[in-house]
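Exercise 4. Each item below gives a protein and its sequence. For each, produce the structure-token representation.

Item: Protein trichome birefringence-like 19 isoform X1 (Durio zibethinus).
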Amino acid sequence: MIEHKKRCDLLFQVIQLSNGKNSQQNSSTKVFLVTLSLILISSIPLGLLKSSHSPLPSPKINISSLRSIELDNKCDVFKGKWVPHPQGPYYTNETCRLIIDQHNCMKFGRPDSEFMKWRWKPDDCVLPLFDAAQFLEMVRGKSMAFVGDSVGRNQMQSLLCLLADVAYPEDISDKLSADTNYFKRLFYADYNFTLATFWSPFLVKSRDADPDGHSYNSLMSLYLDEADEAWANEIENFDYVIISAGQWFFRPLLFYNKGQLVGCHKCNGNITSLTRYSAYRMAFRTAFRTLLSLKNYKGTTFLRTFSASHFENGDWDKGGSCARIRPITGQEMKLEEFNMEFYLTQVEELRTAEKEGKTTGLTFQLLNTTEIMWLRPDGHPNSYGHSMNRNATVNDCVHWCLPGPIDTWNEFLLYLMKRDALQRLRAKLMKNA
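Answer:
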């Protein structure tokens, strides 16, 4: 394990050298980097190799054999099962001082802890444990943004705690935004790494439309062809963007396209009914097209898929709760059709953006959390999360306790980042060989 880590550290140094930052490299240096990179690619599993019954490829490799090296794209890390992990969790609410009350279930008296001691095990490969030092080295000199609603912010909070094992950031939010609750900027000085979150629950422009003012279920207007400037005007220079949206599309909504009212969802009056799935599709289409159209955007975009809620014995506003204390199987509770429809809709739009991105050099990746998190009704705060804006009589079966199963999302994120880095390096080496 230590040897693999040394090789990994060296590989990412090679990646930095081969990124064209030193345009004066002579030909012998390039040949050396190509050869060294190939050796490293072939000798580092990084979770991309099959399980232990498959032998590692020989590190004795030359440039001409590059074409025979295939990264393990056939393995789907999102297909598997939850297994006990008694060594978990990575952190506690005592070792990470960054957990906000909304996610701090243990602080507010949750009596069980088993929900923190499970890991996702893919069927055909290995999902490595999160390595904070490795993550920070990968993002050295870079920036990352979470764009979406409070569940996206929940993932960012998880990442902060995972990284706290190595470093704490400086909060520079007040230097860049007047609203530091919804628009956060955190800076890791030792790594020159910026982490940001942009509040945009619909991804597109929105405004309150209810004459009685804003509430949990008030009417809102969405402008489906206009990206929300709160993130669109800020995102161009970010290296990694994790984009998501979900629960806000359940509320009453008016839909506009090109400035004209084109339909509504859960509204009264003589307005054409438009399904929330159609609006959801158009919102993601606009978001992805915006990223594709930004002249200076060169980042990698991750779609973190729809995260379902787990209210049982009533809806969120009718006494529903989520009191389970362990994972379930897919046979115990089937993923509801409307949740799957949201998931399929956004993935279809991602695939379209992915194809368009190939012509412009932009990468779009799927961070698929929908089905795996459906199996974790035990991971929500329920009555053990406290938010200053939350009605105390409403249980929280949408967000996730920290620590908890949401930490797996960042294991996936690091896995995808490493795989993407290797794929880019392989393409560069093939081009230069």
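Check: Residues 14-32, 38-71 have pLDDT under 50 and may be disordered.
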